[in-house]
Write a structure and sequence with these properties.
Blueprint: E1 45-47, E2 56-60, E3 66-71, E4 78-85, H1 100-107, H2 119-126, E5 133-135, E6 140-142, E7 145-147, E8 155-157, E9 160-162, H3 165-175, H4 180-197, H5 201-213, H6 227-231, H7 237-247, E10 253-259, H8 263-274, E11 295-301, E12 308-315, H9 323-335, H10 341-349, E13 353-360, E14 368-376, H11 378-384, H12 386-401, H13 412-429, H14 434-445, H15 453-462, H16 466-476, E15 482-489, H17 491-499
Parallel strand pairs: 3-10, 11-15
Antiparallel strand pairs: 1-2, 2-3, 4-6, 4-7, 4-10, 5-6, 8-9, 12-14, 12-15, 13-14
């Protein structure tokens, strides 16, 4: 699965469509970690955060693999054994070789364990594991959830024994091998997913706008990749394996275990399973170009749909704990929450949109964007035409740029206090499963491998003043940093097709 249009979770781009990659016959050689690599594991370091409600145990292996263990005893007998690969579509730097991060999310489920056809997935099913993954711009995240007793093998189930989840995950991340035919079949399935994804008008707008807004940077394509690259994926064997061998390496990965576990008992088998994994040099990412003028695109849709208008602004790279990132994380509440002035104006006072939401927020590794998405009413568009869309667009621009004088708004200090508390409480409310805890933690941890990143981010948010919002908006919500996309049916195009 991929994560595309944002459903923000505390300012992080998180989508939740789950797609379990199909399992196809594969063939691979199994290379268990040799005994010479095993050694007594060091005691994990314990960190007790103030906001994040769990003690975090960390250890870094000699090969650079980060191991994070977060005991959560209230989820009795359950654990999520997550692997965060800190590479996503941002790491696809060449046109002709995009979409590979998402492709390998799929391909990883094709791993054969011990030379048995469908071995990896069959073993996971035998353990009763809920096994899923997602790909984003900056991270690919695998998050099997199972019983704690299944982590370390051998595991007895009925009359048989099975390897544990640690062994199974270590096997596919270090020794993945896939027959070419299986690879090609799965690559073809990704094309079907691409077509489904971009049959959504909002997704198509983001795809078209991205290429114009980020020239020369990999944020210029979506997580799925450029369409021609996706269509060519069955022939991308060599490029795909090059991506895998570069980024599926211990120094680009963190194992994050959340659940009813004992860190000192769990670390030795993890260290033993991954000690032989070799690191690799990480390729560089080209810097984002500074735009000198507003970017506008229009998508002519072939069918009658509700018109849409997107307005966004280029924003700085996220660094949890910094003042600018803190403002970026609360902007959603100030713009599109039901109590926000812009939302109230468009949805209720003027009733010009049926929905106003955040399509993407600024929480990205490199400078990215804040992007608002509005859906208009079809009946009114039939009556008032393009002028109606232009009025909504201008209201969105005005509402966003009014944050330059946020401190002068009535009750600005009180509003900010409420927003700060809401962000803090929302964070805690979302930590309601081992999967969610692992996902949210990883989404912050990827910034500098900092186990206290969540605490630092929340502390920076609590320290914000109305003047900080003013300063951020004045710096980043300017015309030369603005991006705009519109979409509605092109009836002229439809008529030409009918005449043919």
């Amino acid at each position: 699965m991929l994560r595309q249009i944002a459903r923000p979770i505390i300012g992080i781009i998180l989508l939740s469509s789950l797609l379990l990659a199909s399992v196809t016959d594969t063939k691979t050689d199994q290379h268990p970690v040799a005994a010479r690599h095993s050694r007594a594991a060091a005691k994990p370091a314990a960190i007790v955060p103030k906001v994040f409600p769990y003690t975090v145990y960390t250890h870094t292996l000699a090969n650079g693999l980060h191991v994070v263990i977060i005991p959560t005893s209230e989820f009795k007998d359950m654990a999520t054994y997550a692997t965060a690969v800190f590479a996503g579509s941002r790491n696809e730097t060449e046109h002709g070789k995009t979409g590979l991060a998402h492709l390998f999310e799929h391909e990883m489920f094709l791993h054969e364990y011990n030379g048995v056809a469908e071995g990896y997935s069959a073993q996971m099913r035998a353990l009763g594991t809920d096994n899923n993954a997602f790909t984003d711009y900056d991270m690919t995240f695998f998050h099997p959830t199972t019983f704690t007793s299944n982590l370390v093998g051998p595991v007895t189930k009925g009359a048989g024994t099975h390897p544990g989840v640690i062994e199974l995950e270590a096997s596919r991340f270090q020794n993945l091998t896939i027959e070419r035919k299986a690879f090609e079949v799965e690559a073809g399935a990704v094309l079907g997913e691409y077509r489904r994804t971009f049959s959504d008008p909002a997704e198509k707008m983001i795809e078209v706008l991205s290429e114009k807004a980020f020239p020369g940077h990999p944020y210029g394509h979506t997580v799925m990749g450029y369409q021609d690259d996706v269509e060519n994926m069955p022939q991308a064997w060599d490029a795909a394996w090059d991506f895998y061998h570069r980024y599926y390496r211990p120094n680009s990965v963190a194992v994050i275990v959340v659940g009813d576990v004992e860190p000192e008992e769990l670390l030795p088998p993890i260290e033993k399973a991954y000690a032989g994994w070799k690191p690799a040099t990480k390729p560089g990412i080209p810097p984002a170009a500074d735009l000198k003028a507003e970017v506008k695109v229009h998508v002519a849709w072939g069918a009658e749909v509700a018109p849409r208008v997107m307005v966004g602004y280029h924003t700085p790279a996220a660094r949890p704990g910094s003042k600018e990132t803190a403002v970026g994380q609360i902007v959603r509440e100030l713009l599109v929450s039901p109590s926000a002035p812009l939302y109230q104006k468009l949805r209720y006072r003027k009733q010009t949109v049926t929905d106003l939401s955040l399509a993407a927020d600024p929480m990205s590794t490199d400078p990215h964007w804040l992007l608002l998405d509005s859906e208009l009413t079809l009946d009114r568009f039939h009556r008032d035409g393009v002028k109606y869309a232009a009025d909504v667009q201008q209201d969105m621009i005005t509402g966003i740029e009014e944050l330059k004088t946020f401190s002068k708004q009535p009750n600005a200090a009180k509003t900010l206090e409420v927003v700060r508390d809401r962000v803090h409480n929302d964070l805690l409310a979302q930590l309601d499963s081992t999967v969610d805890i692992a996902t949210i933690f990883a989404s912050y941890y990827r910034f500098g491998y900092d186990p206290q990143a969540i605490d630092k981010a929340m502390a920076a948010i609590q320290a914000l003043t109305p003047a900080d919002v003013d300063a951020y908006a004045a710096k980043y919500f300017t015309r030369n940093r603005r991006v705009i996309a519109t979409l509605w049916q092109d009836k002229t195009e439809n008529k030409q097709q009918e005449e043919k």
